[in-house]
Design brief:
This protein has about 325 residues and is an alpha/beta fold. It folds into 3 domains: about 45 residues, no CATH class; about 140 residues, Rossmann fold (3-Layer(aba) Sandwich), CATH 3.40.50; about 120 residues, Rossmann fold (3-Layer(aba) Sandwich). Helices cover about 35% and strands about 20% of the residues. The strands form 2 sheets. Strands 2-1-3-4-5-11 form a 6-stranded parallel beta sheet, with helices on both faces. A 6-stranded mixed beta sheet has the order 7-6-8-9-10-12, covered by helices on one side. Helix 9 links the parallel strand 6 and strand 7. Helix 2 crosses helix 3, helix 6 packs across helix 11 and helix 8 packs across helix 9. It is elongated and about 80 Å long.
Length: about 325
């Protein structure tokens, strides 16, 4: 059966041609009921965009001035917006988004902001794509229900670790592989009794499940290794952590653990970092490859935005990014 044209669809539905064209692209300015009617009719009759027209349309779109670029958003909670690492990620995403033909703006979510308010912001700003960066804690966005956010008109990519299971494309650090890499480095240095220090809010998280799985697999092949999990209070709540480090000869510090808050006897131990920020250049550990994560996230979002006129559904999937090991002074023999 021949694929119908936009004109034929418009005549059959009694709509303007431009309305049908925008409806097939998922333009939020077209009412949802109208978009659904257009898409249903097009799917039932096997509508397919002309590849030559699509290529021409994309070429013209890429050549438009910045004022006409499609809007993307970069969502970050107010609590995390001031951190240098988030600002670095925002800067990289802006750079890659602009190269792909989009204009990306930061959207800071305050604790009192609810789901409906965020949806209204996305609609008012005509946000067609969203990158959500690292949401470790539910109390940073207590009134946002991510399962109720607009996924019909806005495409979503979740970048990093989350306290919930996102429904969308994901770019995450390979916690299992990164953990095994840092444990192998610790083992090579001659350490056998490791204390893994993590903040309380990580208890029961998917990252902790992956970390424990990596530790069990590593120790199963090396019975001489002993790894002890040490839970500490959130850094904002205490001036100094309480840690029992008797019998340990090295520490492995998780993200959001501040070394300066370790007690003196633990502070003196050699240490390595898991998912280390760029602000700790002298420490040994696995460092986040932010450039790779930002480029992958923007590529995924670009792919989704260019597919909005396709009737076929693309099921969400996850891309794992391995961190890079950096040899610092914190595991050197002088640190023992």
């Amino acid at each position: 059966m021949r694929s119908p044209t936009v004109t034929e669809i418009a005549e059959a539905l009694g709509l303007d041609k431009s309305t049908v064209s925008r409806g097939l692209r998922g333009d939020p300015k077209v009412k949802k009921a109208t978009r659904d009617k257009i898409r249903k009719y097009a799917e039932e009759r096997g509508y397919q965009r002309d590849p030559n027209l699509s290529a021409l349309s994309e070429y013209r779109w890429r050549k438009q001035g910045e004022r006409n670029l499609m809007n993307w958003g970069f969502l970050v909670p107010e609590l995390g917006s001031r951190y240098e690492e988030n600002q670095r990620m925002l800067s990289l995403c802006k750079q890659f988004a602009h190269q792909a033909g989009y204009l990306l703006n930061e959207i800071v979510v305050k604790p009192e902001m609810g789901t409906s308010t965020l949806n209204r912001i996305l609609y008012a700003r005509n946000i067609r794509g969203m990158i959500v960066n690292h949401l470790y804690r539910s109390d940073s966005v207590p009134k946002i229900d991510f399962s109720q956010l607009n996924t019909q008109d806005t495409q979503w990519v979740y970048c990093g670790n989350f306290f919930f299971e996102p429904r969308g494309m994901r770019v995450v650090e390979n916690t299992f592989k990164n953990t095994q890499t840092v444990l192998q480095k610790i083992h090579t240095k001659g350490f056998r009794r490791v204390g893994f220090v993590f903040p309380r809010f990580m208890r029961g998280s998917r990252d902790m499940v992956r970390f424990r799985a990596a530790c069990l697999a590593f120790c199963d092949e090396r019975p001489e290794m002993m790894i002890k999990c040490i839970e500490v209070e959130d850094a904002q709540k205490v001036e100094r952590y309480r840690i029992e480090n008797k019998g340990l000869d090295v520490l492995l510090l998780s993200y959001m653990v501040i070394r300066e808050k370790l007690p003196p006897e633990a502070f003196a131990l050699p240490y390595a970092l898991l998912q280390a920020p760029a602000a700790a250049p002298n420490a040994s550990g696995i460092y986040r490859v932010q450039e790779d994560m930002a480029l992958t996230a923007t590529d995924l979002l670009d792919y989704q935005c260019r597919r909005i006129h396709h009737p076929q559904t693309v099921h969400p999937y996850t891309i794992l990014i391995e961190g890079k090991w950096q040899e610092g002074r914190s595991l050197s023999s002088a640190a023992r």
